[in-house]
Amino acid sequence: MTRTTLSLAGSLATALLLVTAPASQAAVTAKDAPKQEDIVTAFPELADGQFSTEKVKNIGQPGKTCDAIVRVKVKSGSYTTGSSTTTVYPIVLTSAVEMKSEAKAKAYMATYRKYAKKCTTYTEPTTSSTVTVSKGKTFRFGDESLTVDTQSAFDTSTNYSSSVLTRDGKRISTIVVVDDAAVPASSVKPLAKVAAKKLK
């Protein structure tokens, strides 16, 4: 699990959620993001998985270099992680956050569009894995939506992630699915659709 988590630092999954306590006013709570039942419906193999839900004060976004992550404060947020108790994969993360303004939410999305365009291939320094990034299928969710697919290749193994970010006003939902095989858009879309609906 540790190796998987580290490998994601080179893509966007680790950047998504840096956890502490929440803020106030129109606070995003767990009800604004997909819950355990939603994740299990989309990924039945996690029916006996382990889940955790936390509140969020900071999230991460791509920095100036492809392997860099910077912290960004949010007004409030919540995220849930689900993983198998018997195998490493799949790992599913869902989140909903409210940025301080719509402009900041738009800027956040823009950093990921830039990341997907600029960082098509690079080496992640903490694991020496080769990370390949591509823009995935775009869904018509919220005010804007972006899918980013990554592949992290190690000496003896490769893992894959598909992340769907959706913005609605100053709120952003994120779905991340990590597996040992390419994650098709059809697998991520149902959960991303639930996330977009709950975000409003």
Task: Annotate the secondary structure layout.
Elements: H1 2-7, H2 13-16, H3 36-42, E1 50-55, E2 58-62, E3 69-73, E4 76-83, E5 91-98, H4 102-118, E6 121-124, E7 129-135, E8 144-153, E9 158-168, E10 171-179, H5 185-199
Helix pairs in contact: 3-5
Protein name: Sensor domain-containing protein
Keywords: Signal
Signal peptide: 1-26
Describe the structure in your own words.
The chain is an alpha+beta fold and 200 residues long. It has one domain (2-199): Protein Transport Mog1p, Chain A, CATH 3.40.1000. Helices cover 24% and strands 36% of the residues. The strands form two sheets. Strands 1-4-5-10-9-8-7-6 form an eight-stranded antiparallel sheet, with helices on both faces. A two-stranded antiparallel sheet has the order 2-3. The longest helix has 17 residues, at 102-118. The radius of gyration is 15 Å and the shape is globular. The protein starts with a helix and ends with a helix. This is Sensor domain-containing protein.
